[in-house]
Structure to design on (405 residues):
């Protein structure tokens, strides 16, 4: 048996994907021009799939902070915090994120993936229970593979399903740790967080929420879904990433637990990997200042949500349930999704294509993510282009039929 024989199904699917002429998983950004534009296949392309919610990757103040940090402290730390020590700025960043949430403690990680992997796999031990939403991100599923706790899945966004699972555990000893996400990354739907928190309180369960896609985007101060739901104090652990709204890379976890810092010597994804370089720490600290100082970026983002989401809905597309910065456009099957994605790219618009097995319930999607600095004209144009392709692919009824109907 060949080493890759067990991937035969995936290899077939991947071959299908490549018959369209482009491989959506090997796209080359030949040159990135701004948060919303890049050269792809030799042409200027509108980016509507990069999670760059505030457009801070090219923010002058964040770039200057990164450049100054390189001049002052070099390009990298060349080791982990436990081996090479923490730089003053790592500690300052942790303090600032903790303050942002009004929590006592914060740990930063080299990626958001590692924050989830490390914290979730370590929080729940051999006699504990880790309860996760069925549509959890890959980093949460991977944490489940590493944990010694018993893993229990509940139905996506269904507090009564969680309650049934907790009830069934009865009075078995062991902690219960419930893992949720603020905005789910594929369809952009949100956890009914208040209801989940009530269930967790009733059963004495700890709550961990991953706010990767909601930092900056949700809440009057950009603190995410936990701010909107008024449950920051009830979320024992809030995890997030620097790679989306904050425009860089890295992850964090905040908590009020007095013993939280023990994770610094127990979480392997923190202990055995190099820490964030000075340039990233500096740009993230500046990006957090921008999030606090410029709430108009959130307003602009939501104006853009209204243009794209409402525009596509009005044309008859089937969208994810939530009006928000991640817009999932349902398509009937994998090949239609890939063909549609390619037609969009040929028309100069880049979005993500998400197909089984990477999607919940085997759905095929175009996944769009909005940016505060998209212009209304860009998004109106996108709706027009998608409508044309939608008719061409038979996803939308054609114009005459619509008029007749
Ligand atoms: N959690 C969620 C919900 C995500 O969508 C992602 C990234 N797509 C991550 C965690 C991992 O974050 P990062 O890419 O910053 O490692």
């Amino acid at each position: 048996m060949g080493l890759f024989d067990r991937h035969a199904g995936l290899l077939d699917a991947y071959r299908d994907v490549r018959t369209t002429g482009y491989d959506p998983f090997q796209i080359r950004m030949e040159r990135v021009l701004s948060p919303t534009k890049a050269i792809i296949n030799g042409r200027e392309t509108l980016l509507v799939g990069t999670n760059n919610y505030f457009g801070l990757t090219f923010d002058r103040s964040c770039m200057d902070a990164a450049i100054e940090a390189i001049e002052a402290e070099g390009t990298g730390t060349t080791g982990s915090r436990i081996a090479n020590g923490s730089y003053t700025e790592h500690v300052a960043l942790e303090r600032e994120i903790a303050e942002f949430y009004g929590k006592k403690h914060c740990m930063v990680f080299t990626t958001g993936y590692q924050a989830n992997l490390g914290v979730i796999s370590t929080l729940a031990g051999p006699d504990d229970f880790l309860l996760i939403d069925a549509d959890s991100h890959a980093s949460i599923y991977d944490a489940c593979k590493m944990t010694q706790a018993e893993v229990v899945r509940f139905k996506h966004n269904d507090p009564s399903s969680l309650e049934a699972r907790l009830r069934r555990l009865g009075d078995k000893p062991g902690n219960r740790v419930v893992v949720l996400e603020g905005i789910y990354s594929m369809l952009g739907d949100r956890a009914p967080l208040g209801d989940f928190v009530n269930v967790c309180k009733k059963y004495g369960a700890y709550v961990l929420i991953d706010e990767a896609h909601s930092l900056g985007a949700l809440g009057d101060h950009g603190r995410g879904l936990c701010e909107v739901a008024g449950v920051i104090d009830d979320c024992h652990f809030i995890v997030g990433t620097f790679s989306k709204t904050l425009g860089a890379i890295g992850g964090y976890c905040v908590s009020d637990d007095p013993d939280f810092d023990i994770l610094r010597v127990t979480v392997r994804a923190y202990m055995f990997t190099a820490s964030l370089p000075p340039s990233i720490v500096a740009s993230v600290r500046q990006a957090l200042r921008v999030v606090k100082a410029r709430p108009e970026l959130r307003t602009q983002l939501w104006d853009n949500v209204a243009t794209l989401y409402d525009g596509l809905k009005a044309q008859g597309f089937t969208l994810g349930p939530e009006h928000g910065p991640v817009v999932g456009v349902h398509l009937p099957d994998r090949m239609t999704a890939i063909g549609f994605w390619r037609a969009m790219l040929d028309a100069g618009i880049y979005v993500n294509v998400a197909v089984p097995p990477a999607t919940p319930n085997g759905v095929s999607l175009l996944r769009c993510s909005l940016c505060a600095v998209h212009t209304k004209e860009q998004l109106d144009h996108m709706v027009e282009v998608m409508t044309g392709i939608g008719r061409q692919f038979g996803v939308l009824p054609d114009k005459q039929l619509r008029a007749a109907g």
About this structure: The pocket of 4'-deoxy-4'-aminopyridoxal-5'-phosphate is lined by residues 111-113, 116, 137, 139, 181, 185, 210, 212-213, 241, 243, 251 (CB under 6 Å). Residues 17-47+295-398 form a domain with the Aspartate Aminotransferase, domain 1 fold (CATH 3.90.1150.10). The chain has a mean pLDDT of 95. The longest helix spans residues 296-315.
